[in-house]
Design goal:
This protein has 3 helices and 3 strands. It starts with 10 loop residues before the first helix and ends in a 5-residue tail after the last strand. It is of the alpha+beta class. The chain has one domain: Pantoate--beta-alanine Ligase, Chain: A,domain 2, CATH 3.30.1300. It has a 3-stranded antiparallel β-sheet with strand order 1-2-3.
Length: 133
């Protein structure tokens, strides 16, 4: 029985190819996962801002109630460090504005692997206050 040496691949070349390609594939995979999670957090920030503005638009709502509602929406995603800015409605400006900001490093799955990227995930929502004359 004769072996066909020309048709066989040498195992060492497969190992070298795998060693070259694996870091690239893993980097792409982790990048996709990180971007997906950042997108989820950004979507949750938009929902939290909308819920806060909706509650703020109701007559008799307090700032603490709004902050509690925003926090209740963000806790399931794992966001506990957020800056919530409230602009309360007045008769001159009858709009409730809720602005939420979270540093990206606080929600990154890779834990600052890429260093201090220096940007925040943010969302703002405004609604007209009910019952103002």
């Amino acid at each position: 029985m004769r072996k066909r040496l020309g048709k066989q691949r040498k195992p060492a070349s497969a190992v070298v190819e795998m060693a070259v390609v694996t870091p690239l594939l893993l980097t792409m995979l982790f990048g996709i996962i990180e971007f997906g999670y950042a997108f989820t957090v950004r979507s949750s920030l938009a929902t939290a801002a909308r819920e806060g503005a909706r509650l703020g638009a109701m007559p008799g709502s307090t700032e603490q109630e709004i902050r509690d509602r925003v926090e209740a929406v963000l806790i399931p995603v794992g966001v506990t460090t957020s800056a919530v800015e409230l602009t309360r409605a007045t008769p001159e400006s009858p709009t409730e504005i809720v602005h939420i900001s979270v540093p990206y490093e606080d929600v990154s799955l890779l834990g600052g692997y890429f260093g201090d990227v220096g940007f925040n995930l943010e969302s703002t929502c405004s609604m007209r206050k009910e019952g103002l004359d």
